[in-house]
Amino acid sequence: MEFDFTPVITYFPTLLQGLGVGLLVALVVAFMSIVGGLLVAVISVYVNKVVSWPLRFFIWLFMTTPLLLQLYFLYFGLGEWILIPAILVGILGLGFHYMAYNADIFIATIKAVSGGQYEASRSLGFGHIATIFYIIVPQALIRSIPQLGNNMILMVKDTSVLSAIGVAELVYASQYAISVTFRPFEFFIVIAVMYYVVNIFMELGQAWLERMTAYRR
Amino acid sequence: MDFNLMVEISPLLIKAAWITIDISVRSLFFGFFVACGLVFLQSFRFAPIRWFARGYISVIRGTPYFVQLLLVFYGGPSIGFRLDPITCGVFVGAFNIGAYMSEAIRGSIESVDSGQAEAARSLGFGRAQTLVSIVLPQAAALMIRSVGVLAIVVVKNSSLVSIISVVELTYQAQRLIGSTYKPLEIFTLTALIYIIIVYAVMGIIELAYRRAMRYTTL
Amino acid sequence: MSTENQTDTPDTPMVEIRDVYKRFGDLEVLKGINLTVNRGKIISIIGPSGSGKSTLLRSVNHLEVIEKGSIFLEGVQVNRPDLKGLAFERHINHIRQNMGMVFQHFNLFPHLSTIDNVTLAPRKLKGMEAKAAREWGMELLNRVGLAEKADVFPNWLSGGQKQRVAIARALAMKPKVMLFDEATSALDPELVEEVNLVMRSLAEEHMTMLIVTHEMGFARDVSDWAMFMDGGVVVEECAPQKLFSNPDQERTRNFLKKHLQG
């Protein structure tokens, strides 16, 4: 049994391209899931039960069922109405999935900001919405950083699942190369290493961000 | 919503659900031993053993479960390691969740005030005895909660085994969506089954743990 | 209404509280309170915890919604049962911009630096330019003796420093009246004096102030009028020299006996 990594080197540009697609998707999903999650959290904390109850139900639903099932549902469900590219389905699916996870965190951190903060802001003459925007949300965001970082690290790893619906990310990019070179072990090892490196950088980034914001908590 | 269709397909989904349950429960069961092993290795005084455990946990947590699954299933045979798809799902599932679970267990043990262990040692308890009769019972509540969260992860991870053509719940749901073109009905039913499984598994863990604690505290 | 000692300014009173009632569930905390605060006057409200003194102060800022009666700021009604929804929101925001409130637990915004805590309101609510706001903020921080802490975050400040910043923050909107809700109660004893000093300096500048406090000595020294509350009613009110040395009511005497130390 000997290993041969030369095919991996030959197809390395393809892999890098796949990695690039995966990271690009992750970037869009990070933006969508953080902004969307914040919006969902603010609405479900501050708006009446009629609106917040369905939102909390969807958060719970997205958190207790598998991503892949949600992706299939979106892929075939949307496919009935319109023809949209797989990458868009992937972004939406992953985006909604992590929007639910992030909203769950934001709800907890928004509630953790003390009532005194709200009162102090109102006593200065800020309105309800201005107080949420200038005082509550920034503090909730800072408190959310550690858990938010964990979610985003999980999310980047989950981009690999998007290959199942045909998004041309890293795993998908390797499929063709494996089918012609018959070297699955070598390719998957290299892919794992690539994910691991990305993961290390994300953990460093998370630690840095936590350090940078610790004094504002 | 087409309720007739939902009634019609539910036996198929329930049959597939048993595969999901089988993979999830076995992954959790073996994963627990992997986790205990990793916690044990990290208590060694000989540093390289600790480094090995830390490195293993770091690599498992730093790479996607999906890639681990593909590596073992497709890459394994080329180093003479051949597993049938379901066994492969259980194998990778257990070794994956074991890494996460060991961190959860370690975290809950570390959350117990160190004064507790000192007090026990000062009474003459040994290291192992202190752990079993003083520290673990106090760490139990937190441990149950974090292992319960991991149970959800395991059940959700098992859906990825569909990619190596195990006909579990997600695979069956995808096949049915493809043949009936009724994604909403099938998604609703499948989601419902997943939710039932998740809560059942979490319930079993809590029960098993409570039973175990009855013996350890004595 | 007892206004005999406060008639030296003929114009409209700064704050007027008329027959105010407030209850929390079954508990009546304010049972018909009246008080007139004239421009430039300093009123201290003392009383045991649960007497309703803090609730009264918070009602002036509409942090508590009163059930009956009315409160006026310079002749403008604060509580307006006739206004609903957004109209009331706009009204109360405008009213509050003219009142400075200082809380027992400071409530500084931890995500903003000291100077930003002070200048947030003038920048966002009055549209003050960043540069002008910083100058104004520095002037205020200077007044409370904390100019060198301008770019420090609140978590690095001591309790006394935090409260001084909170006072500067409340002053930033040039309020017509300052409300102090047990401003020194959460502080370690050795930090009380630095906050009292800042409050004294405001008194010298003839800021209208309504002070709820446990500091009997400070209340006696600084205020023009003192009020003792117990069980949701005003038991006694008069000039502080009289209230603290020779009160008419038995309940006041008992309370002071327990709390007066120098």
Please outline the helices and strands.
The complex is a heterotrimer of chains A (217), B (218) and C (262).
Chain A: H1 6-10, H2 12-46, H3 49-64, H4 67-81, H5 86-112, H6 115-123, H7 128-158, H8 170-181, H9 184-213
Helix pairs in contact in A: 2-3, 2-5, 2-7, 2-8, 3-5, 4-5, 5-7, 6-7, 7-9, 8-9
Chain B: H1 3-41, H2 47-62, H3 65-75, H4 85-110, H5 114-122, H6 127-157, H7 169-180, H8 183-216
Chain C: E1 15-24, E2 27-37, E3 42-46, H1 53-60, E4 68-73, E5 76-77, H2 85-97, E6 99-102, H3 114-126, H4 130-143, H5 159-171, E7 177-181, H6 189-204, E8 208-212, H7 216-222, E9 225-230, E10 233-238, H8 240-245, H9 250-259
Parallel strand pairs in C: 3-8, 3-9, 6-7, 7-8
Antiparallel strand pairs in C: 1-2, 1-4, 4-5, 9-10
Family (chain C): Belongs to the ABC transporter superfamily.
Subcellular location (chain C): Cell inner membrane
Protein name (chain C): Amino acid ABC transporter ATP-binding protein, PAAT family
Can you offer a commentary on this structure?
Chain A has a single domain (20-216), classed as MetI-like (MetI-like fold), CATH 1.10.3720.10. With 217 residues, chain A is mainly α. Helices cover 83% and strands 0% of the residues of chain A. The longest helix of chain A has 35 residues, at 12-46. With 218 residues, chain B is mostly helical. The N and C termini of chain B lie far apart (55 Å). In chain C, strand 4 and strand 5 form a beta hairpin. Classes of the chains: A mainly alpha (217), B mainly alpha (218), C alpha/beta (262). Chains A and B meet through helix 3, helix 4 and helix 9 of A and helix 2, helix 3, helix 6, helix 7 and helix 8 of B.
Rg over alpha carbons of chain A: 21 Å
What sequence of helices (H) and strands (E) makes up the elements of chain C?
A: EEEHEEHEHHHEHEHEEHH
Sketch the major β-sheet of chain C. Answer: 6 strands, mixed
Total DSSP helices of chain A: 9
Looking at the overall shape, the CATH architecture of chain C is 3-Layer(aba) Sandwich
Q: Identify low-pLDDT runs of chain A.
A: none
> How many structural domains does the protein architecture of chain C include?
1
Question: Which key phrases capture this entry?
Answer:
heterotrimer; A: 217 residues; mainly alpha; MetI-like fold; B: 218 residues; flat
Task: Summarize the model shown.
The complex is a heterotrimer of chains A (217), B (218) and C (262). By secondary structure, chain A is an all-alpha fold.
